[in-house]
Every structure is written in structure tokens, then in C-alpha cells.
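Below: protein 1.
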Amino acid sequence: MDVVNSVELEENGPVRTVMRITGKLAGMRLSQRVALYRGLKKIDLENSLDWRPGRSMGVDQVSPLRQPGAVVRWGIPFGTATEADMMPGAGPRAPDEMPRDVWSK
């Protein structure tokens, strides 16, 4: 985020704690919900971006911490998916995308 406007405790219960961070990214409104679960090695991140049509910009969700054996799941309608669920041969194709050897890691 370019600018953080607020950090709010949305939920704090016996099962999970949820924080909402709001701010701006390249002038667009951005909201991120971070859910931490008691007793589970799991973090849920939910990003909402008020995208303005006509922008040519990539947005990445990155984490600076590597965890051995960690699995990243992406939200899809009616469930989640992992790298193992991707179609064979999927990946970057255009010359302006990241190199395949970097993407595959």
C-alpha cells in the first residue's frame, strides 16, 4: 500500500481474529482483511481494490518469509486452488511477463 488509512479489529473471538487494513495503492482504494486462526498454521488474506479502468499496472501479493512445506491456496468460486491444481503447461507466455523459471518457483 502507498498509504495506510486505518487498521481496525474486525473480529476477535475464540476461533479467529480478523484485522482490516484500508488505504490506497496508486491512488485507488484498497482494503485487506487478515484472518489468523487459533491453533491452525493458517493465514487468510482477502484483498479488494477499487480498480480504475484503463490502468496498465500489475499488482502482486508477496510475502518476504519463506516457510518450508507451506502451501498457497488461491480463492476461486466455490473453493480454493493450489499450484498442483493448475493445468499442465500453464504459466507466462508473453515477453513482458516474468520469466518462466522465476514463475515456476
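Below: protein 2.
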Amino acid sequence: MGIWDLKKQLLAISAVLLLASCQQAKQEDKDSTDAAKSEQSAKESVKDEDKIGYALGAKMATFIRNDLEKYKMQGINKESVAAGFEDALQNQSKLDQKEIEQQFAQFQQKIQAAHLVAQQEAEAQAMAEAKEKAKPEIEAGDAFLAENAKKEGVKITESGIQYRVVKEGKIGAAKPAATDRVRVHYHGTFIDGKVFDSSVERDQPAEFALNQVIAGWTEGLQLMSVGSKYHFVIPWEKAYGWQGRPGAIPGFSVLQFEVELLDINPSSEKPKKAETKTN
């Protein structure tokens, strides 16, 4: 959210408060026994030449009210906002420019924090709804992981990644760090065996930074030495998560990879990047 947007919101708050104050004064003079008629009279009392200004104030009021409700902003001193607005109009602000900027920075931080909370709540809700819809797929993935874990030679990392050594590299061969680039051949399938991506089928090794791919690869390939080939089964949380990769991998997908580590930080011409990069 830019500083202009925040200034617009602050101005809108002031407009809302001033408008509310005027409306309250008018309401005290009206006949309380006929509220509907009084409200209609108030609308008709707006002169044609004042309607643009009135509409602008109403627009800003709606804008700021919606945002305050959306982000649950509480504790703003309405009288101080109105006073600051009125003093500024008269060029008689009680705070100097530095103080105003300091206080405005605090307001900006509150808005940003509220926006972040709203985003997190919305994402959590979206994930819960998606998880409910994908319940059969999640159960199938869990069952596959449980069965695979029983197979001979399968090991499980603390984070839940399952792997089996197909071929081990030479004794003393180097292992990559998360900050290294690696060159690999890989073959990726869903739990039903359907291929979704394969450098082997393309006959073109892939090269990429190990910290720029899915978490399951970043962790799993650090177990391997050059020349090794491992078979990985990666839970959805360490693969493409609940959102998946649109058009290629559904959310909550448990994935299988057979990976051969060819080189670490190769100096020769770089092949295409792996298709397993994160979104």
C-alpha cells in the first residue's frame, strides 16, 4: 500500500467524521417521530451546486468505512482526526511536519499489519475449503505414503520425505549444499505412475539452484553425492502445496521423483532449468 493510498484514507476518515458531525447536528433539530421523512428532507436540502462535494464526501466515506471494517481498525480518536483535519484546512496545525510524518508512519504500519492479517486469514480459509474438496485425493496420497514407507530400503527424513537409494555415488563424492547449483536427470510421476515431467524423456539434463526448487528437492538432493540416483516420494507439503502448479500438478499432490545427480556447480554451458521450480 503506497503512501498516497494511506493519505487518501486519512483524508477520507476526516471527511467521514466531519460529515457525521454535521449530520448529527441536523438530526438533533429534526422531528424524531418521523425519521424517514426527515432523512428525505435532508437529501432534498443539498443544493445542486453542493452535490459534487457531497457526493465526493460520501464516496470517501464509503471507501474508508469498508476498509476500516475489512481490516478491523479500532481505537482511532475521531475527535483528534476531525481537529487535525480542520486545523490543517486553516493552516494552523498543532504538529510540525516531522511529527506528522512520524505519526503517519505509525498509522501506515498498522494498516500494513492489518492487511497482512487479512491476507493470512483469507488464505487459511481458501486452503480449508480446498482441502475439504480434495479429501479423497489427500487420503489416497496418505495411503500411498504409508504403503511406500513399508518397502525395503525406504528411509524417511524428519520432515517426512521418503527416499530409497537406487545407486550410490563413489565413496568421497561431493554432496551439494542448498546454495549450490546442480545438474540432474529426473523422472517425475504422480502416485498412479502417470508422468508429469521428465528430463530423461527429453534427453536433456536440467540445471538449477538448489534453493530455488520445491522444498522436497532442496532437502532431498543434499542427501545425495555426485553419481547417485535416488527415488523420492515427496508429501504435498514439501512439493507444490495445497495450490499445486496450475495446469500441470493439482493441489495436495504427493509426487514421485527418480533423480540422478550428475554434477555440482558445473562450469560448462547451462541446460534448461528444471520444471520443478516453485511458483
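The longest strand covers residues 181-190.
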